[in-house]
Amino acid sequence: MAPVPYRVVAKRAETAETVTLTLAPVGAAIPEPEPGQFTMMYAFGIGEVPISVSRTRPVLEQTIRAVGAVTGALCRAEAGQVIGLRGPFGTGWGVDEARGRDLVLAAGGIGLAPLRPAILRALARRDDYGRVAVLIGARTPGDLLFEDELETWRARGAQVEVTVDRPAPGWTGHVGLITALAGSADVDPSRAAAYVCGPEIMMRLTAQALAGLGTHPGRIRVSLERSMRCGIGWCGHCQLGPLLICRDGPVVPYESAVPLMAVKEL
Amino acid sequence: MDRVSADDLRRERFFHGMPGPHLARLATAGRVVEFPAGRRVFEENGTAESFWVIRSGTVALDLHVPGRGPVVVETLEASAVLGWSWLFPPHRWRFGAVAVRPVEATRFDGPLVRTLGATDPELGYDMALRFGTVMLDRLEATRIRVLDLYAHPGEPR
Ligand SMILES: Cc1cc2nc3c(=O)[nH]c(=O)nc-3n(C[C@H](O)[C@H](O)[C@H](O)COP(=O)(O)OP(=O)(O)OC[C@H]3O[C@@H](n4cnc5c(N)ncnc54)[C@H](O)[C@@H]3O)c2cc1C
């Protein structure tokens, strides 16, 4: 499957090391992704990496943290530059299936990017859901993604709570681990669906906290990340236990993730 | 300050599963209190004679760092327990606490609860276990924060 050319039409710096690229097809487009899905993003001449979609409509956005060669190159891409996309791949959060339920969306660090389309989808169809709580953990206030959107999410009917590990002077929000926010989510845990995205330890502890409050573990979903190559279940690079994360993941029920989270990356 | 009943306490997660007679005795030591945003609940090094079960609002635990002023180490939300120094000698606060959003809480008279526990060791043991669990949870959260999970992978740790 050849990468489809996309042009960077806008670029926004989210934090010192994270950018959001708005992308438009040069010719034919890839199918519209579902919230939670990812694409293989190709920086021509450098390499290809899996990156979740951070907005599915009306424009395609992807949010990238520069950690190495390929993500570094994508973060340096400027408006006008052409990159390649394959996809969309993987399982989504299943926001449409959760209609009628309360929603808890819990994000740690860059984990807010894959959750953002689910938040936007639920807020676009606000009446289809009960209460919607967005819980966000970040290292410092400066590491917060989509900061200028949080007020809009609140105005559109979401409870948004942010906690940081290290407050900056003047910070008046929460300080501490995201697990401590689980109890502050103004939802009925027994009828809630929960989506959790972030570092694995954060996802495990947050899912445990939500389950402890009464959310059925079968309705808690997490997004697993393993390094990937083909994106379509051929190469086996992202195998984790019985799953190929590119095809059977990244979003999986917490119940099936529990035994896998203990498996170290190969 | 309003009194609280055993039923009021039963609704709090902290007291979940506690036998009715214990709740009734603890309720004699509890009063509903409120703090406006910005009000200091206690000062670092002050005498620790109370604990609070937060009903709503947010309290920040802080420590005075020379040159930086009060630095917030953690915030506590609804259903959290504030204060355990009342239980352990020398009964002095190791951190300060300030309301950052308006707080409603049940305040318990620490010396009275210590007396209730000493005269009824079953109640005392139950409370010690509950406070132990709170401390265990906070220790775990602190250890996870020490891992600095959101750090950049290339950053030295
Ligand atoms: C399904 C899926 C969705 C993803 N979504 C996003 C996203 O929306 N935004 C985003 O920025 N990243 C996302 N990632 C992670 C991204 O794919 C990796 O950061 C990228 O592959 C690193 O490639 P690189 O060539 O830049 O760095 P490399 O040279 O391969 O690695 C550089 C350093 O980063 C570390 N590293 C590599 N992968 C990860 C990882 N997944 N998490 C933490 N550290 C890592 C390596 O151990 C190494 O220390 C996702 C990964 C998967 C599997």
From TrEMBL, chain A:
Cofactor(s) listed in the protein's UniProt record: [2Fe-2S] cluster
InterPro entries recorded: Cyt_c3_hydrogenase_gsu, Dihydroorotate_DH_Fe-S-bd, FAD-bd_FR_type, Flavoprot_Pyr_Nucl_cyt_Rdtase, FNR_nucleotide-bd, OxRdtase_FAD/NAD-bd, PyrK_electron_transfer, Riboflavin_synthase-like_b-brl
Signal sequence coordinates: none
One Pfam family from the record: NAD_binding_1
Binding site residues for [2Fe-2S] cluster: 230, 235, 238, 246
FAD-binding FR-type domain sequence ranges: 1-95
Biological process per Gene Ontology, one example term: pyrimidine nucleotide biosynthetic process
UniProt entry keywords in alphabetical sequence: 2Fe-2S, Iron, Iron-sulfur, Metal-binding
GO MF annotation list: 2 iron, 2 sulfur cluster binding; flavin adenine dinucleotide binding; metal ion binding; oxidoreductase activity
Superkingdom to which the source organism belongs: Bacteria
Cofactor note: Binds 1 [2Fe-2S] cluster per subunit.
The protein, known as: Oxidoreductase
Organism expressing this protein natively: Actinomadura litoris
